What we know:
This protein is an alpha+beta fold. 65% of the residues lie in helices and 14% in strands. It contains 5 helices and 3 strands; from the N terminus they run E-E-E-H-H-H-H-H. It has helices at residues 27-32, 35-50, 53-67, 71-96, 99-102; strands at 3-7, 13-16, 22-26. A hairpin with a 5-residue loop joins strand 2 (13-16) and strand 3 (22-26). The longest helix has 26 residues, at 71-96.
Amino acid sequence: RPRLRVSDHLGSACAGGLWRPTILVSRSLVEALDDTQLDDVVLHELAHLERLDDWSTLVRRAIEALAGFHPGVRLIGRQIETEMEAACDERVVARTGDPSSYA
Length: 103
């Protein structure tokens, strides 16, 4: 069960913590968004944790580090990251049933 924390040191939201999952949301987002928008942000970050994206990102970054600056590896890594974000967006829309509000 992930913890939800507000941070003064972030500009957005993120999820992480390989053994102690935590969703961090910047205070500026908390103050700027309404409750529905904030719920969507938290659901997006929760989707990352449910999909174990923190673990797959760790493995991907290790591979990128071992490969050095290999353009193909970097390109594939960026594509994987784009697909991870899209998958999490799709989960939020599936849970809320409101794609226009999430957009």
